[in-house]
Amino acid sequence: MQPKRWLSLSLGALMAMLPQITGALAETEQLSGTVVAGYETSVIAPFGGTVDSVNVRQGQWVSAGDTLTELCTTRVYAPVEGTVGGVTVKVGDGVDGAAMSIAPVHKYTVTASVSEVYGTTDPSQTFVSAGETVYLRCAKDRSHIAVGQIVSVSGTEYTVETTGGELYLEETVNVFRSDTYAFDTWIGAGDVSRTAAQEVQGSGSVVRLWVSEGDTVERGQLLFETVEGSLDNYMADGSRIATTTDGVIASLSLAVGQKATKGASVCTIYPRDGFQVAVVVPEDMISQIKQGDILRFFLDWNEEEPTWYEGTVAEISYVSTVTDGNTTTFTVYMDFDADESVRLGMTAVVELDV
After folding, report:
1. CA 304 to chain centre
2. Would you identify the CATH topology of the domain 108-194?
3. Among residues 322, 255, 247, which one has the least CA distance to residue 283?
4. Is 146 exposed, middle or buried, given 0-12, 13-18 or 19+ CB atoms closer than 10 A?
5. What integer is the mean pLDDT of 326-340?
6. How large is the average pLDDT for residues 90-96?
7. Which of the four pLDDT bands, split at 50, 70 and 90, describes residue 4?
8. Can you tell me the distance from the alpha carbon of 232 to that of 253, in angstroms, rounded to the nearest whole number?
9. What is the residue-wise DSSP string for 259-324?
10. Architecture of domain 27-38+273-353 in CATH?
11. Where are the domains of the chain?
């Protein structure tokens, strides 16, 4: 019975010592690594145009939705005062021709001729020019009057658009230089027609639409803006080109005044989800690491109050490097979730249990 008791005590003592033995055998090795970009992606211009502004620079952190650049647009203005109608486009549409029309406020047009003037020997009375203000009165009973402006002259004929008053369509009116309608200010006669709506032309793709059907606009008011080429289902947000990912600007292909071509790269970005730590591992430790392992590390710049990260081994290089001390090493790449405090090129201190 005595030997059995001695064996039991020996096993108990051995079990009590195991944690100390294991602790003595386990060591933590600190390896040096560097934050690197696993890959880069390009931002492609969805439309073309001249660069108006560049909002970023190389090395800058950007977030999805940030504006990279604004391109110049072609701005289309109202040729006349009137009411917007016949709008055939919306933001994102391509246009090559009429985009809308404007029914002029000056709703009557008179096509007149100085050849109708008789009983005068003064040649200057029948000499007219565009821009003159004139006064109209119906020839039948003189009950309809209006005021207008000569908008074009061709030989003895000229065109007047009314700016006020009421006339009847297709009636004949006399045109005078004075609102007294004196005979010596008479400069012709013509027939009344309705002023045709003016088509507003455009080309390219609409990125901003400033008016809607039925709006009243003034001459020179901005109607819409276009950029070059088709948008191909791109949801235009004005003329800006934005990034769709978080990351760091790797390179820029933009300069103010430079031409941006649709489909060409405007910049490259190192995406945040592609940040990695490249760890240099000596040859005698490489067998202890495999893909999928999770290793802890902190960034050397914050050694006093380190923030610990977890990295997942994504790749182990099959090509070795020999250091100056003739030590053979391999590079291990770890994926991790980077925040905005992480910068490419930072030194990482990786812990490895050996």
Report:
1. 43
2. Elongation Factor Tu (Ef-tu); domain 3 (2.40.30)
3. 322
4. buried
5. 93
6. 92
7. very low
8. 22
9. EEPTTSEEEEEEEGGGEEEEEEEETTTGGG--TT-EEEEEEGGG-SSPPEEEEEEEEE-SS-EE-T
10. Beta Barrel (2.40)
11. 27-38+273-353, 74-104+198-227, 108-194
For residues 3 and 238, the model is more confident at: 238
The stretch 267-291 carries a mean pLDDT of 94
Hey, what's the torsion of the CAs at 269, 274, 280, 285, to 10 degrees? -170
Q: Cβ contacts of residue 3 below 8 Å, gap of 6+? A: none
27-38+273-353 and 108-194 in the same fold: yes
Of the listed ranges 84-88, 209-213, 260-264, the one predicted with least confidence = 260-264
Alpha helices in the chain (DSSP H): 2-25
**pLDDT for position 190:** 93
Q: What's the mean pLDDT in 220-244?
A: 89
Q: Domain 74-104+198-227 classified CATH 2.40.50.100?
A: yes
Distance between CA atoms of residues 327 and 85, nearest Å: 79
pLDDT more than 70, % of the chain: 91
